[in-house]
Write a structure and sequence with these properties.
four-stranded mixed sheet; 15 strands; globular
């Protein structure tokens, strides 16, 4: 109930909308927007030197971070609601379920979540404790007690639970028929949310792209008519001099119109797609900042959601999605352009065009291999960047201790070592880019030569009416083959980024373990009144308090590596390949529940060599098998109890000191008052108006006076002089 209440955060979480002054673009008329005349005054002022320092053009309302973050937040909360539609039935014996393929099976929902060691870890799954298991499971399925492949998901004392897909089970009415009123839970998706929140410019730019393609593809046809006109052949061969002159002027005018229209459409299309990418970037950044402040301690303790990983999401993954937005329209326009260009070429040179297509297709596997290697290097680069950022953050976090102990060189050397690994992957990516550019630029030249040679060998004559239009069409044909591999590369890298963002944004939100102070005091008074007749009179004499801790046992979360697993998880490349090849004929099997029988994954021989060489217990390099599966490390997060049966009362308005030996739990006690620890037993109640000042030096980015008076204009001079006098 607390989680569901937390999902319905007020829409104004990001605060009220700031006042908006219409931007220059919003005030401009349509012609000015197309020709970008609205930016002319600022360019002229800048050229004349009249532009004041720090002047920034105001953004449109739909481009502002507040509008985008609020819209994305509201849509994503709706997505999260759809994943919690069955939460109320967890552990409820009155909500009976069955498998859809077995009408006699009966069970109770005990868990809804994600399984790390699954073929698709982002797919939502459910745990069912069976009172009457399906007949198909007899002797074929190993049940679980809530721990699957070493990962503890839930508790099932009977040991008769299985992990199912939500679509494979349904609720059953008391009268025996299926209940269809509850929608099936669906995993929240960043991709769907972006489609809802940032799709306006995408759909507006589509007609602009269509108009650009029409103008661009019509130019070879106009060129053909121009060549006919220059040679005195074609439809104008028997016309009068005046008719030929008008026809020539019309061809020249069409050249001008199509060129100008194509240029304007392309620039406007490029502008809108770049704006669309920046909108997605702003929306995701706002959601990431919100999640970083509200993530639950359990999910924050997972290594995949470390501080370095979150920083990398904000700096790298969001930028990958921003770049991909510029090429999303090519997913349909490039194939369409390819088909039309091939059709026009077939009308010009016949079957010879298929030779050019064969040569192009022959180069596709080479480009695919280069892209695959580049994708692997990109993935390894992300992991290396995570390690480097994590090491850098640890260095900055403990810089005082490092300075005291003189450990600067060793820590800097460790960071530089990670940086060298990162630069190694960057070099590989650049090498692959150079190789890809070589193939992309060399293949079209080879195709042009082969097409004209074959056309001449087959007995045709190379005339200007054939050569120039065919060259123009071959240049048009060249663009899709250049863009399509690049587009797939950006889409794949953006999918990797989206998967990482999904993992972070779908984490549980923080649920406060701190109770209301007034409610806890009233409860204690009621208990005192029940135990002692004079309790009410004694309660009136009690002094006000700021916090009350009653028999509390406090625990923190700790990530534990899972040593056992059932199988290797398919990598993203294998999953994309499976999605592309889903239309091929295959033997489909009924989805089976996840097996609970773990097996140990034997290390490879290369791993043993690395262990002997480096003296480490593990190798953090990700290795892949022939099927594209990742041999990665998985973790489960468990509770670790730190303090037992703590009781304390903090009086209000008094200086209170917590005294104890080193490691006795003084800092943990303060963190518990802030709600950073889990209360496994007992209760903690505190005043919501509470501030925490850590024992760390902190200097504001300002002058010495600003740090002393803290930007307080009233009597700031007197306060600064008093502080300087006291220190000197």
């Amino acid at each position: 109930e607390q989680k569901r209440a937390l999902l319905h955060t007020p829409p104004n979480y990001f605060g009220p909308r700031p006042p908006h002054d219409p931007s220059m673009e919003e005030k401009a008329n349509p012609f000015s927007r197309v020709t970008y005349q609205w930016i002319g005054p600022m360019i002229r002022s800048s050229a004349a030197g009249d532009l004041p320092t720090g002047t920034v053009m105001p953004l449109s309302l739909e481009d502002k971070a507040h509008s985008l973050s609020t819209k994305f937040f509201n849509y994503f909360q709706g997505e999260r609601d759809k994943s919690h539609t069955w939460d109320a039935a967890i552990g409820s014996s009155g909500d009976v379920m069955r498998r859809k393929d077995d009408a006699n099976s009966r069970g109770v929902l005990v868990w809804v979540g994600y399984l790390q060691q699954s073929e698709d870890p982002s797919t939502l799954k459910v745990g069912i404790e069976w009172s009457k298991p399906p007949k198909a499971y007899a002797g074929n399925v190993r049940f679980t007690d809530g721990t699957v492949d070493g990962e503890h998901l839930f508790s099932c004392p009977s040991g008769r639970a299985t992990i199912e897909l939500p679509d494979s089970v349904c609720f059953v009415h008391s009268r025996g028929d299926d209940e269809t009123s509850r929608p099936t839970p669906r995993a929240p998706s960043v991709t769907r949310t972006l489609a809802y929140a940032c799709s306006r410019l995408f759909f507006i730019s589509s007609p602009v792209r269509v108009l650009y393609e029409a103008c661009y593809l019509s130019q070879p046809q106009i060129l053909e008519q121009f060549v006919y006109f220059i040679g005195g052949r074609g439809p104008s061969e028997h016309w009068t001099h005046e008719q030929k002159w008008l026809w020539g002027c019309f061809i020249a005018f069409m050249f001008l119109v199509t060129s100008v229209c194509a240029s304007l459409c392309f620039q406007k299309f490029f502008h809108m797609t770049m704006r669309n990418g920046l909108q997605a970037r702003s929306a995701l950044m706002g959601q990431l900042f919100h999640k970083a402040l509200t993530i639950s301690p359990k999910d924050a303790a997972h290594p995949e959601l470390s501080a370095g990983r979150v920083v990398n999401m904000m700096s790298s993954d969001v930028e990958r999605i921003n770049e991909a937005y510029g090429f999303l329209q090519y997913a349909w326009s490039a194939p369409l352009q390819l088909v039309i260009a091939v059709a026009l070429l077939y009308m010009k040179i016949g079957w010879v065009v298929f030779a050019s297509i064969a040569l192009t297709l022959f180069s596709v596997p080479l480009q695919g291999t280069i892209m695959k290697l580049q994708m692997t290097a990109r993935k390894n680069l992300s992991a290396a960047t995570d390690r480097r950022i994590k090491a850098t953050n640890e260095l900055f976090g403990a810089v005082r201790v490092i300075k005291f102990m003189g450990w600067e060189r060793s820590f800097v050397a460790a960071v530089l070592k990670y940086r060298d690994i990162e630069l190694g992957f960057l070099k590989k990516i650049q090498y692959f880019r150079v190789a890809s550019s070589l193939v992309v630029n060399a293949v079209p030249m080879l195709i042009n030569a082969c097409v004209f040679i074959l056309y001449h060998v087959t007995g045709h004559t190379l005339t200007p009416e054939v050569v120039f239009p065919v060259l123009a069409l071959l240049n048009i044909l060249r663009l899709p083959f250049m863009v399509i591999p690049w587009m797939f590369n950006l889409i794949v890298t953006s999918l990797v980024a989206v998967n990482r963002l999904n993992r972070f944004l779908n984490a549980d939100d923080l649920v406060s373990v701190i109770k209301e102070l007034d409610d806890e005091i009233a409860q204690q008074r009621a208990a005192a009144e029940a135990a002692n007749a004079d309790g009410a009179a004694q309660a009136e004499e009690e002094e006000p308090v700021s916090a009350v801790v009653t028999n509390a046992s406090l625990a923190a979360y700790q990530a534990v590596e899972i040593k056992e697993r059932r199988h290797k998880v398919p990598g993203l490349a294998a999953r994309i390949k499976g999605a592309i090849c889903c239309c091929l004929p295959s033997k489909k099997k009924q989805p089976e529940p996840e097996s609970a029988e773990p097996t140990t994954v034997a290390p490879d021989a290369d791993d043993d060599k690395d262990k002997k060489k480096d003296g480490k217990k593990g190798d953090d390099k990700k290795k892949k098998n022939a099927g594209g599966a990742e041999d990665k490390t998985f973790h489960t997060v468990l509770e670790k109890e730190l303090l037992h049966d703590v009781s304390a009362t903090i009086p209000k308005g008094k200086f209170t000191v917590v005294v104890g030996s080193t490691g006795s739990g003084k800092t943990l006690f303060l963190e518990a008052l802030l709600g950073h620890l889990t209360v496994t037993r007992g209760a903690i109640a505190a005043d919501p108006s509470m501030a925490y000042v850590p024992q760390q030096a902190w200097i504001m980015n300002g002058t010495v006076e600003d740090n002393v008076v803290f930007f307080n204009d009233e009597r700031s001079k007197e306060r600064f002089n008093a502080a300087a006098k006291a220190c000197c």
